[in-house]
């Protein structure tokens, strides 16, 4: 019976490999059609996708408000079930009202103000450049040679900036605002998708516990209990990494944008709303984001009011230090678990593949992948009764596969000293020969065990 099951499993595996090969070959020839098919599905499910994203972002807010109301309602005599339902309903209602209020503020005040600032900037750019040109040239009036070089550089820079603004920038802004206007005023489909998305959000927030319970029930019914426990633990940690980073970074950027608005308003800087929005949005991008926003904003202030540019730079540097050392760590903590090197890799790779969205989501995505690999690696090491801390392997030269006894590198001795003492390190060929011998030995033992079981039957 066991041999029949073995052959059955082998046959199923071969069938799956052949089917996967045929499917891959088919996908190569019909890649465009397959891509269009999936794009069509995504567009059709746009309300569901919108609802899932909003619900995922609002879930921490709902849980926080729900916890507050549970503590408050604990002082009243009512059933536990009624208390939980009431707290959950109030949490969802207040969270949705806060979200709608934020969207209303953006549509009513922030976006029109940003658009007006852009139009004013474009209209006055020639005046700003001419004013800055005169200001910079006057600084070197006592030195004609430097003044001539500065004048040449300013002429080239002003020609490039004016060409870019009158060409690519104007076209992009006009096209973007045209799409927004068309979507809001004329495209009923967009309005319907947003409305249905909000409905899906409310439904998901109400039914999230039931949906999660159904998924767990399905997993426990079809998989081994210990595997399901591991999967659920990994899923909780991955959600904590990804969701904690995204929600924390959005909150951090919102606070930074508000502080920037208050600060530059007090300092009476030009284009207060535009600069605050740029600083807040770019702050979502880890490490590079503050600089991506600070450089163009500094140039804008430099053109509009050159003496205030230095004050603005000092303020932005102070704001970034506050965010990096105080606000950011208190909100985010060590939510990713990645070193600075891997954060840079995630931002670079994500930005290269998916532009701005990739730069924002690259870090939590890589952090989640890193956690999954780390979990799998630690699981395999624990199976072999080996340590899981990386520091335990720093100075290891080799580990005996049979006894798990480690030999350590002796960095205090030079190669000449080792040669004098007759210390011979194992070469690559020797390690390969040992590994091959152990592999053959293991296969022979497994074959002998199989033959013994067959004879007993």
Which terms would index this structure?
84% helix, 2% strand, single chain, 457 residues, 13 helices
Q: How would you characterize this protein structure?
A:
This protein has 457 residues and is mainly α. Among the domains are: 36 residues; 170 residues, no CATH class; 52 residues, no CATH class. Helices cover 84% and strands 2% of the residues. It has 13 helices and two strands; from the N terminus they run αααααααααααββαα. A two-stranded antiparallel ribbon has the order 1-2. Helix 3 crosses helix 4, helix 3 crosses helix 6 and helix 7 runs antiparallel to helix 11. It starts with a helix and ends with a helix.
Q: What is the secondary structure topology, with strand pairs?
A:
Layout: H1 2-29, H2 31-44, H3 46-73, H4 80-139, H5 144-186, H6 188-222, H7 225-266, H8 272-282, H9 289-304, H10 307-332, H11 340-383, E1 396-399, E2 406-408, H12 415-420, H13 428-456
Antiparallel strand pairs: 1-2
Helix pairs in contact: 3-4, 3-6, 4-5, 5-6, 7-8, 7-10, 7-11, 8-9, 9-10
């Amino acid at each position: 019976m066991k041999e029949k099951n073995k052959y059955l499993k082998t046959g199923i595996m071969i069938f799956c490999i052949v089917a996967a090969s045929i499917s891959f070959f088919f996908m190569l020839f019909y890649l465009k059609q397959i891509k269009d098919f999936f794009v069509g599905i995504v567009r059709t499910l746009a309300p569901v996708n919108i609802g899932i994203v909003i619900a995922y972002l609002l879930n921490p807010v709902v849980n926080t408000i729900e916890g507050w109301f549970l503590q408050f309602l604990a002082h009243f005599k009512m059933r536990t079930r009624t208390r939980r339902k009431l707290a959950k309903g109030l949490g969802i209602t207040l969270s949705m009202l806060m979200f709608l209020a934020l969207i209303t503020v953006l549509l009513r005040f922030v976006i029109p103000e940003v658009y007006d600032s852009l139009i004013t900037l474009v209209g006055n750019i020639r005046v700003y450049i001419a004013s800055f040109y005169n200001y910079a040239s006057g600084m070197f009036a006592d030195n004609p040679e430097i003044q001539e070089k500065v004048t040449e550089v300013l002429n080239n820079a002003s020609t490039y900036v004016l060409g870019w603004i009158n060409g690519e920038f104007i076209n992009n802004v006009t096209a973007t605002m045209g799409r927004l206007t068309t979507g809001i005023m004329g495209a009923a489909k967009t309005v319907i998708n947003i409305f249905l998305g909000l409905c899906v959000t409310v439904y998901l927030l109400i039914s999230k516990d039931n949906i999660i319970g159904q998924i767990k029930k399905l997993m426990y019914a079809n998989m081994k209990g210990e595997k399901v426990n591991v999967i659920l633990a990994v899923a909780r940690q991955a959600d904590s990494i990804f969701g904690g980073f995204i929600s924390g970074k959005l909150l951090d950027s919102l606070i930074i944008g508000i502080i920037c608005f208050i600060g530059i308003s007090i300092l009476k800087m030009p284009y207060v709303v535009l600069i605050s929005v740029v600083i807040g949005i770019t702050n979502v991008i880890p490490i590079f984001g503050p600089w991506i926003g600070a450089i163009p904003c500094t140039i804008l202030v430099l053109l509009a009011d050159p003496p205030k540019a230095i004050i603005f730079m000092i303020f932005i540097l102070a704001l970034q230090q506050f965010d990096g050392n105080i606000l950011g760590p208190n909100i985010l903590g060590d939510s990713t678990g990645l070193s600075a090197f891997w954060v840079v890799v995630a931002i670079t790779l994500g930005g290269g593949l998916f532009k701005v969205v990739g730069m924002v989501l690259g870090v939590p995505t890589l952090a989640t992948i890193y956690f999954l690999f780390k979990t799998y690696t630690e699981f395999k090491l624990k199976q072999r009764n080996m340590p899981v801390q990386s520091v335990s392997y720093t100075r290891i030269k080799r580990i005996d596969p049979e006894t798990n006894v480690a030999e350590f590198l002796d960095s205090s001795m030079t190669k000449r000293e080792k040669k004098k003492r007759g210390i011979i390190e194992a070469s690559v060929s020797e390690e390969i020969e040992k590994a091959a011998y152990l592999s053959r030995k293991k296969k022979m033992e497994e074959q002998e065990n199989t033959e013994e079981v067959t004879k007993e039957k």
